[in-house]
Specification:
elongated; alpha/beta; 17% strand
Length: 417
């Protein structure tokens, strides 16, 4: 090894002394390497630092160009606290070997062995299967994890290699099947555990990509971003799936100056977002749709900038416990803050400011009511929400013909259903 955290594998069989545990991260970069996604990857690396080494089970990047490989390599070097190995995913094309080395290799540790096989194009390479046979035949090898990117046929999903390809893999390990303790894969942006040929199959794709619905049994709302820990206890190779807290990877909190600058930047980006949207409205009212469209696009860009900066700052709680945390802020605004400022505006004869605060007050009260209903996410039954674009009032269910706050017509409501 050359001292870098991200290891470029140059030998078919790598012996690692002092290694007794491994963290596994799935699919960190296939949907892009923006800050919003990389925050999850940063958290995954942080959690995986509890182990002696880390393995990424494919899709490090959205496409196999040098630019993307250099970004993920630089991010990994900056954030990882242990050595990180990779296997090739279907997105990891192009210059993969230039950065990460061999596509088929084995890691022999003090307590277990990991055989990494390339099946990124939905077939196992002959050299990989030959390596698997060679390693399994070694007398010192007793507990083996076979790792690859695309799942083998299982009981949960159809997005897998063919039965014929699995038969080739099975033929390679069959004489030493008792040594194979786990099959490990990624590719699917969720997670599931299964038994295949009597061997536990662990599929993990929660290291950065957005979690997705996989089947009726595997819903995105039931799966968190996560990593898998493998470790040996009393001669038994075990694993544990660890969900990532959503406030992982927030080193910006530790530096007061950087935190302040991030807050200021979020405010500036959101102000630009608002200014561009309002100018787009002005252009649209004058029939200049191309100009309006440009400024809507610029506004969207500024919002995504703000989201990325805020992602570094944000420290959310567990998702299903988060809704109720928004309620006190809404209640404070409509019960105290906005009424107080509206009264001040009235005293100083600024009826426009007074109107804006009173209109927002009414909306915040409705926000709080809807949030209280949504605390029980599974039971929340409101299917359609209307927002008045004139004053921002929110209406659920059957909306009136005119906004009860400003009188705006129903035909102008924004509909969320």
């Amino acid at each position: 090894m050359d001292g870098k955290r991200m290891v470029k594998v140059t030998e078919r069989i790598v012996r690692l002394s002092g290694v007794r545990s491994m963290g596994v991260i799935g699919d960190p970069g296939c949907e892009g390497l923006g800050t919003y996604n990389m925050k999850v990857y940063a958290g995954a690396l942080e959690e995986s630092s509890r182990d002696d080494i880390t393995l990424i089970v494919g899709d490090l990047v959205p496409a196999g160009t040098r630019h993307y490989y250099e970004v993920i390599q630089s991010m990994t070097e900056a954030l990882s606290q242990n050595h990180v190995y990779a296997l090739r995913g279907n997105h990891d094309t192009g210059a993969y070997t230039e950065y990460f080395g061999l596509k088929n290799y084995a890691l022999l540790t003090d307590t277990f062995t990991v055989v990494v096989l390339d099946n990124a194009v939905r077939s196992f390479e002959e050299e990989g299967l030959a390596l698997l046979t060679e390693v399994l035949a070694m007398e010192e090898v007793r507990r083996v994890i076979i790792a690859f990117h695309i799942p083998v046929p299982n009981h949960f999903i159809l997005n897998c290699v063919s039965q014929e390809e699995f038969d080739r893999l099975r033929a390679a390990y069959a004489p030493w099947k008792d040594k194979v303790k786990y099959l490990l894969c990624g590719h699917v942006h969720a997670r599931f555990e299964d038994q295949v040929d009597g061997i536990p199959l662990i599929c993990t794709g929660g290291g950065g990509a957005m979690i997705e619905d996989v089947s009726k049994e595997i819903r995105s709302c039931d799966v968190e971003h996560h990593i898998v820990h493998f470790y040996e206890t009393e001669g038994v190779l075990q694993y544990k799936i660890c969900d990532l807290a959503e406030d992982h990877g927030n080193r910006g909190h530790k530096d007061a100056i950087l935190r302040q600058k991030l807050q200021e930047t979020v405010q500036g980006e959101l102000m630009a977002h608002l200014k561009y949207l309002m100018f787009a409205d002005r252009a649209a009212r004058r029939g200049m749709e191309r100009i309006a469209n440009l400024f809507r696009a610029l506004a969207a860009s500024e919002y995504y900038h703000a989201r990325n900066f805020y992602a570094v700052l944000e420290r959310p709680g567990a998702f299903k416990e988060s809704v109720e945390t928004f309620i006190p802020g809404e209640e404070f605004e409509y019960e105290r803050l906005y009424q107080m400022i509206a009264d001040y505006a009235a005293d100083y004869q600024n009826p426009l400011a007074q109107q804006a605060y009173m209109g927002a007050l009414a909306a915040e009260k409705e926000h709080a009511a809807l949030l209280k209903e949504a605390v029980d996410m599974e039971a929340f039954g409101t299917q359609t929400v209307f927002v008045c674009p004139i004053c921002g009032y929110v209406m659920a269910g059957d909306a009136p013909e005119r906004c009860p706050v400003c009188g705006g017509p129903k035909r102008q409501y924004e509909v969320f259903s």
